[in-house]
Design a protein that fits this description.
- By secondary structure, this protein is α/β, with parallel strands linked by helices.
- It folds into two domains: 25-55 and 293-391, Aspartate Aminotransferase, domain 1; 58-291, Aspartate Aminotransferase, domain 2 (3-Layer(aba) Sandwich).
- The protein contains 15 helices and 15 strands.
- It has helices spanning 2-17, 58-71, 79-82, 86-99, 110-121, 136-143, 157-166, 190-199, 222-225, 255-264, 266-269, 276-290, 294-312, 332-344, 374-390, and strands at residues 34-36, 42-45, 103-107, 127-131, 148-152, 173-178, 180-181, 186-187, 203-207, 234-238, 249-253, 324-330, 347-348, 351-352, 362-367.
- The strands form four sheets. It has a seven-stranded mixed sheet, sandwiched between helices. Strands 1-2-13 form a three-stranded mixed sheet. It has a three-stranded antiparallel sheet with strand order 12-15-14.
- α2 (58-71) runs antiparallel to α12 and α5 runs parallel beside α6.
- Its EC number is 2.3.1.29.
- Pfam families: Aminotran_1_2.
Length: 395
Amino acid sequence: MSLLIESITLELKAIEAAGTWKKERVIASPQRARIVLKNGIEALNFCANNYLGLSDNNEVISAAKIALDKYGAGLSSVRFICGTQEIHVELEKKIARFHGRENAILYASCFDANAGLFETLLTSEDTVLSDELNHASIIDGIRLCKAKKHRYKHRDMVDLENKLQDSMSSRLRLIATDGVFSMDGTVTPLPKILELAKKYCALTFVDDCHATGFFGNSGRGTEDYFNQLGSIDIINSTLGKALGGAAGGYTTGKKELIDLLRQRSRPYLFSNSLPPPVVASASKVMDLIINSTEILDRLKSNTNLFRSNMKKAGFTISGDNHPICPIMIGDARLTTEFADKMMEQGIYVTGFSYPVVPKGKARIRVQISAAHSQNDIEHAINAFVYNARKLKIIK
């Protein structure tokens, strides 16, 4: 153990020396547009996945409280033993209807949904083709399966087609991609992927965690954004971001696919059921967004306001008009200093550096919420401009 601790200590010192140490600020309030930290500082929060601002919604909280009283704190069981309640089944039906699919299956997280998919579906006779910048959970899930594995260059459809051609002898080919890439706010080229999938008889899988509920005309994610509803074979997503922000993930698709996952998917079979309050809160969110785009429209307006004004000020922002707005800085130390100075002015943002993003591509990832007011957005922009000029990031 002493040898292990010595090795760990050296690694920790190296992380700190590189300027990539990740601080964890303690929040003493609910997750909302304006938060209070444990040290008493109040700040506007611009780095949560609370895209629709529903993490602290009164109707959502009320639904969770009612479920807590009616169904208890948890199930103390996995689904197939004695861990399924009527609300679990009801939520799965709502998710399937929302996506226009036949069925859905709940997991403790989307990380678990990704961990349980590829191993269950693919054999050594199959091939999976994965975008090189896919989320870690997709990468880890693919590692668990026995299929042949190919990484295609990020959003490079020529490279994907070459790899599809090279794998023609496989029983099944599955193209796996994030819908929206969370570090860059960029969208996968879904129409071209669908075209290639049809041409080479491949299946399509999209992780839509940073799209479900708020991206596209009706908030139904990447395929909605491209007017391709119903086109993706398998969708995995989360309840822990726009859909209430609590926890949980899911897979939705064909009935037979979901039936097999219930029988074989290890994270599903060996993990406790989602707690009733979490299920109820997500179910209420589905009710709030399924028939109205009011919150979605507010988020779009806020996103456009922030992106357009930041670009006018001279900032380099990555992404495809998505609420994820990465402010590209480059240097890790400078990015950390910039984020700290923003906090001093009451703007909570976080610097991202290696290994979360590639070396030399450090950034402050701003995330816009429907809960932000126009004044909130403008205040954040002014703070960014003021500090960027002081640090000579912009003129």
